[in-house]
Amino acid sequence: MITNRDLACIGLVTGCVCPRRDVDGAVRGAWLWERRPGCGASVVPLRRLVRRWTLAAVADEEVGESIVLAADEAVSNAVEHAYRDVTGDVQVLAVPRPCGHGVAVVVEDQGVWRAPAADPGFRGRGLALIDELADQHSITASAAGTTIRMCWRTLVRG
Predict the structure, then answer these.
(1) Average confidence score pLDDT of the chain
(2) Which of 62, 94, 136, 158 lies most in the core, judged by the most C-beta atoms within 10 Å?
(3) Helix residue ranges, H only, the chain
(4) pLDDT per residue over 35-69, tens digit each?
């Protein structure tokens, strides 16, 4: 579940997910919070939503593409690995950080964590890719699911 810790990281400490507002009431950047079934049919629509969000919120096109690719990898991992024996949803939260120094993206599932294989073979490089693309990231796995938090230091529109 997207937690108050995630929301506090991006300045939304009340649990209410709404656009951050400046003193004059103007919206301070776009945000995206989407939940879809954790199945293959959700991967492309979520990638398109994240791309649309980066076009609206992220000033640097190259960073925007890194965000799209990393979020797509995190969603694909959730669909492929978390829900082998069960069903559930995948959530994506993408927001400018209220400090004005970048964006945060959180991808979570309620499935079962599977540690990466020692030898990933041809595939299995999604977490390494996220490590290369994001300025910072963390993975939290528990019985309640897996949460991947990613941050980029970049200029935001808004």
Answers:
(1) 79
(2) 94
(3) 4-9, 43-57, 61-77, 126-133
(4) 999 999 999 999 999 999 998 888 899 999 999 99
**pTM of the full predicted structure?**
0.78
Calpha distance 22→55 (Å, rounded): 22
Distance separating alpha carbons of residues 130 and 147, to the nearest angstrom: 13
- Residue 16 C-alpha from the chain's centroid: 18
Q: Which two structure tokens, joined as six digits, stand for 32?
A: 């995206």
Pick the most confident of 23-32, 93-102, 142-151: 142-151
Query: Which backbone phi and psi does 132 adopt, to 5 degrees?
Result: -75, -35
d(CA 38, CA 69): 18
Give the SS3 label for residue 50.
Answer: helix
Q: Residue 153: pLDDT above 60?
A: yes
CA–CA distances in Å: residue 101 to residues 23, 58, 128: 18, 11, 24
Amino acid at 155: L
